[in-house]
Specification:
Elements (H helix, E strand, L loop, with lengths): L1 H19 L3 E3 L2 H25 L1 H6 L4 H17 L3 E3 L2 H22 L7
Antiparallel strand pairs: 1-2
Helix pairs in contact: 1-2, 1-5, 2-4, 4-5
């Protein structure tokens, strides 16, 4: 049940980011759900690999480089989803990555799904 709530919150976060970041587009609510799923999958696979490979650079930049990787993962998701979810530029992807992280954190905190329960 928690995974379903997190998925819906992620889709809502994608929808919110699309309203505030110019060049970040979501076609519909269904597209936001699919985009959240694809973004999560891309981050879990390719994003994890890139974060591991670029760990020294991330340490050198005090973690800022992870925003670049997250922006690249948004670009990959945009490429995979075509017109349903589109990011026009790297600037939009970078701003979207920052805002998406913050909105996701806020929503999960408000919903109480950010903490682990046993």
């Amino acid at each position: 049940m928690r995974h379903l709530i997190n998925w819906i919150l992620s889709a809502l976060a994608v929808w919110v980011v699309a309203r505030f970041v110019p060049g970040f587009h979501v076609h519909s609510a269904a597209a936001a759900l699919v985009a959240a799923l694809v973004i999560g999958f891309v981050n879990a696979t390719l994003g994890t690999l890139l974060k591991l490979i670029t760990l020294p650079l991330t340490i050198l930049t005090l973690g800022i480089f992870w925003l670049v990787i997250n922006a690249l993962m948004l670009e990959v998701a945009s490429f995979l989803l075509g017109s349903w979810f589109r990011v026009d530029s790297f600037k939009a992807a970078f701003l979207g990555a920052i805002l998406l992280s913050l909105v996701n954190m806020l929503f999960r905190w408000l919903a109480g799904t950010s903490r682990k329960t046993t």
